Amino acid sequence: MTGNGVAPQLAVFGAGVMGIGITTLAVGRGVPVTLVDVDSARLDEARARVRNELRLAHMMGALPRTGPIGELRLAASASAAADATWVIEAITEVAELKAKVHGDIAGAVAPGTLRITNTSSIPVDELADRVPAPEDLVGVHFMNPPYLIRTLEVIRGPRTGDPAMSAVDALLATLDRKGIVVGDGPGFVTSRVLHRMINDAANVVEEGRATVEDVDALMEGCLGHPTGPLRTADLIGIDNLVDSLWVLHERTGDEGCRPSELLLRKVAEGNHGRKTGRGFYEYGAR
Ligand code: NAD
């Protein structure tokens, strides 16, 4: 229950990799979710994908097997978020698109409603510049998959207000996540470090120095990376990774963030990783 005794509701924008994962986490913790996407094909498959991820999360012990499951509603426009207690935007990593959607969300919800961006790399204050009520905007960088990884990055922009930060605390307590608050800036902490490393891993393969499998085996076996950087690229989605690398490159000038030719080719060929069935590795049906 919220402070005024009303059961909280979550609205999630974007039914892609992260929107589906965040929705799974929330409904699995009993929170009703309205999931909004402009792509009707994504909405058509969303219910089955959430059901599937919930089953996986239960099998892995990542979500409680007992207790209520939140209701899932699907919608195609921002007006469906009108009653939300919290809103999480997890749409494509393009600043212009995000600014437009945050404007639509701000026009639909009650003033003071927490609006989160799950951006991997765009500075929160850059978005705050272009959206109404910037005091209600916070960056919360959920990790993938959100129901499995408990720790996440919270980005307080210079214009974020105290009530919004308190609302983030309430949301994370409800979802049983642990937030670490960091300063604003391109890629925050995790993407600033991880995305550049994945890009270098792709460059090493492109230069012919090692195979995909050997790069991952070395990073796992020698350096303790849990899955290897290139398998991680497949999990993230290589299209999203490239979008984030461009954001980092454009805003920092760091040539190490210029997307590797190998990553660009994979995107052009439609080999985006797990979500398309092929990236650096091959995958069965989703
Ligand atoms: P994705 O490409 O899998 O999904 C994006 C979704 O947004 C698509 O379904 C698309 O139809 C939808 N969309 C686009 N415009 C929209 C609009 N105007 N309104 C509603 N929906 C819209 O992307 P993703 O990997 O889920 O990433 C989403 C966000 O989360 C990005 O900002 C990304 O950087 C961030 N993120 C991704 C990961 C990851 O591992 N993939 C991890 C953390 C954060």
Work out the number of β strands: 8
CATH superfamily of the largest domain: NAD(P)-binding Rossmann-like Domain
Give me the secondary-structure category. Answer: alpha/beta
How many distinct domains?
2
Spans of at least 5 consecutive residues whose pLDDT stays below 50 are: none
Give the gist of this structure.
The protein is α/β, with parallel strands linked by helices and 286 residues long.
What would you note in describing this structure?
This protein folds into 2 domains: 10-182, NAD(P)-binding Rossmann-like Domain (Rossmann fold), CATH 3.40.50.720; 193-276, N-(1-d-carboxylethyl)-l-norvaline Dehydrogenase, domain 2. Helix 1 links the parallel strand 1 and strand 2 (33-36). It contains 10 helices and 8 strands. It has helices at 17-28, 40-59, 95-108, 124-128, 162-175, 190-206, 212-221, 229-236, 238-252, 261-268, and strands spanning 10-13, 33-36, 72-75, 86-89, 114-117, 137-141, 151-155, 178-182. The two termini are 35 Å apart. The protein is an alpha/beta fold and 286 residues long. Helix 1 (17-28) crosses helix 2 and helix 6 packs across helix 9. The protein has an 8-stranded mixed beta sheet with strand order 3-2-1-4-5-6-7-8, sandwiched between helices.
Keywords for this entry:
12% strand, 43% helix, binds nicotinamide-adenine-dinucleotide, N-(1-d-carboxylethyl)-l-norvaline Dehydrogenase, domain 2, alpha/beta, globular, 2 domains, Rossmann fold, eight-stranded mixed sheet, 286 residues
